[in-house]
Every structure is written in structure tokens, then in C-alpha cells.
């Protein structure tokens, strides 16, 4: 089998999490509330809660936030909430996150070629 015959490696695996979140919602009869709009608003709220942890931190403190005793657990909890709502939203919408991430990463590679984007924060249309 040649290198080109090897199927691309999956970048992310969310199927087990999606199934667990589905069971969690089913057990509570929450499917009726898990409409895309509601999940998106909940996701936005969780991102806001994550932002709140970092809001007044110095740059140095923000780098250490996931390890500092006063913020580590909150950072972990909010990151988990963000991930769970994102996976749930993708599941409800029928979006394959692995395919979406793989496709978007390839597109970003075209928009931000290494020779032009290395060590710069310029947007692709300014490179």
C-alpha cells in the first residue's frame, strides 16, 4: 500500500462524547430544548464565562491560568462546557466535526502559507 493509499488520519474523535451528550439529554428529556439557537446561545454563555476568568488578568497570569490553584479548576470546567456545547451543537446540526476541522485546516494552510505567514499576525488578505 503506497502512502497515497492510506486514508487520512482523523484529527479529532468526538463520537463517544456526542453519544454521551445525547444520552444525557435523552435521560432528562432535554432534546426539545436542544435546538441549534438554544445550544448556540448556551455555547456563547459558556465562552463568556471562560472570558470572565481571564478578563482582568495580566498576560503573564493568563498564560498560567490553567495551572494556578485559584483559577485552574474554573478554566478546566469552562473549557469542558464550551467543548460539550460545541459537540452537542454539531451533533444536532449533523455536522461532522472531524471533516469540518480537516477541511478548515487545509483551507487555512492555503490562506496562510508558511513562507508568507511565518512570525506575523497579519490577516491572510494582508500577506
Notes on the structure:
By secondary structure, the chain is an all-alpha fold. The termini are far apart. It has helices spanning 15-27, 36-54, 59-63, 72-93, 97-111, 114-117. It is globular. α1 (15-27) crosses α4. It has a domain at 12-99: Orthogonal Bundle (Helix Hairpins).
Main sheet: strands, sense, barrel: none
Helix content: 55-70%
Total helical elements: 6
Q: Give the overall form.
A: globular
Name the CATH superfamily assignment of the domain at 12-99: MazG-like
Briefly note the CATH topology name of the domain at 12-99. Helix Hairpins
CATH architectural designation of the domain at 12-99 = Orthogonal Bundle
What is the CA-atom radius of gyration, in angstroms? 19 Å
Please sum up the structure shown.
The chain has 127 residues and is mainly alpha-helical. It contains 6 helices and no strands. The protein has a domain at 12-99: Helix Hairpins (Orthogonal Bundle).
Topology of this protein?
Elements: H1 15-27, H2 36-54, H3 59-63, H4 72-93, H5 97-111, H6 114-117
Helix pairs in contact: 1-4, 2-4
Keywords:
single chain, 127 residues, mainly alpha, Helix Hairpins, 6 helices, 0% strand, globular
